[in-house]
Design a protein that fits this description.
It contains no helices and ten strands. It is globular, with a radius of gyration of 13 Å. It is mainly β and 107 residues long.
Length: 107
């Protein structure tokens, strides 16, 4: 399955944050999330396992109470039901991969 980034629909998430639903099939889903500087991905949890890859920029990343600065080229594994969130330290892009798929992201 091919998904061309320039054809993927951009949807608003939180203030200063947009999301593209990229490839998703079987038990996997990938999204590309763009953050303006200082935009917040609010603390939340979900039953899905998640891996996040920083494609551009940097974030203050909170995972189960631990705060770490991650930047372009870094990644993080988020276990099922772990509380996590981010603050963009600059204009940034994060690629999130979920298993199983996030049905709430489909449109």
């Amino acid at each position: 399955m091919f998904v061309l980034g320039h054809e993927a629909e951009v949807t608003p998430a939180e203030p200063g944050v947009t999301r593209k639903l990229m490839a998703h099939q079987g038990g996997l889903m990938m999204t590309e999330v763009t953050f303006e500087k200082d935009a917040v991905g609010n603390l939340h949890s979900h039953p899905h396992e998640q891996i996040s890859y920083i494609a551009k920029g940097s974030f203050e990343f909170q995972l189960d109470g631990t705060i770490t600065v991650i930047k372009q080229g870094d990644s993080v594994y988020i276990p099922s039901n772990a509380v996590h969130g981010v603050v963009a330290l600059e204009d940034s892009i994060i690629v999130d991969i979920f298993t199983p798929q996030r049905e709430d992201f489909k449109y």
